């Protein structure tokens, strides 16, 4: 069996765009006719350029190869252009293609992917969700209203979720870390207080940030949140300074989580060595794929750290996350985005029951792609999957982070 053909489909979820502006789906076909699906997450170049990168990585390092040879193909891509270091764009391309290889291998052996990763460790996977507006909410008011967020949190907990994530702490900007405004700290505390009052001890609070603070600023904010006992403080400073993140972890009692922007074991290992985080959040469509993150999970075991796969993308990456999560002992939970479009794209082939995900039993990733739906929703904009704002933090008029919902006019 050899990898033969590649097709790339760029699909845009409907407004307001939960999961980003677009999802890059890859379809691999072998010379025996087996089809595998993968997803390349949040590339740092536009989808037109990224399609060319994916095609080049496939043709250069994978086409004609046996899909079993995951390690060999990874080393080829990782060494691309005499690098042998994490390259976010190349590894983003490879990650989606690697996921598709696992889908092929599972289908060829008529077994789910988790069965090829050491078997099923977890019969069900604890899920968490961001707080998104309910149908009757004003989407503009939602992001700065602790009361509305608390109403949504209670609704999610009533559905069975035992953890909810929110991120009211102001903008993430291309300028790097900033000192939070007092209004941002006050609003963050108000969110934690209102949500904790609403859900009590029925659910953990997951405080999300996007690397937007200085070390000192993150510590100030974290100290203010400590009375509400969040389960994690997510990526409190930019991910490029492990030593500084370790200072935050040492100064704040809330566990630090990081990883959605990290790539391969080469970037996760220093985090563990420095004690910078005890919860790792890889995005499998970016970080090197399923096999590479299985290695990271094993490294994390040694440091008594847990895994919580990240998702701000489509349901194919979600499926990959689930198979990894099903196979590892040090799983904390997995992010979910439960929208009608996510579910329809995989024909409702993965189920969430009472806040827990059931690992698929069907071969491969265990999903069926609605190709007609994927093709009927092409991305026609010019913006990237996610983008940072150029304007700095506003200390006079306050800040409103719109929850990752990108504008629909770009």
Keywords:
single chain, 410 residues, alpha/beta, TIM Barrel, ten-stranded mixed beta sheet, three-stranded antiparallel beta sheet, 14 helices
Strand fraction equals 5-15%
**Do you know the CATH architecture of the domain at 116-364?**
Alpha-Beta Barrel
Q: For the CA atoms, what is the radius of gyration?
A: 20 Å
Low-confidence sequence ranges: none
In percent, how helical is the residue content?
A: 25-40%
Topology:
Blueprint: E1 3-11, E2 23-30, E3 35-40, H1 47-61, H2 70-78, H3 88-109, H4 113-116, E4 125-130, H5 139-142, H6 146-158, E5 163-166, H7 182-199, E6 204-208, H8 215-225, E7 232-234, H9 242-251, E8 256-258, H10 265-274, E9 279-280, H11 290-302, E10 306-307, H12 315-327, E11 334-336, H13 340-345, E12 351-353, E13 356-358, H14 371-375
Parallel strand pairs: 4-5, 4-11, 5-6, 6-7, 7-8, 8-9, 9-10
Antiparallel strand pairs: 1-2, 2-3, 4-13, 12-13
Helix pairs in contact: 1-3, 2-3, 6-7, 7-8, 8-9, 10-11
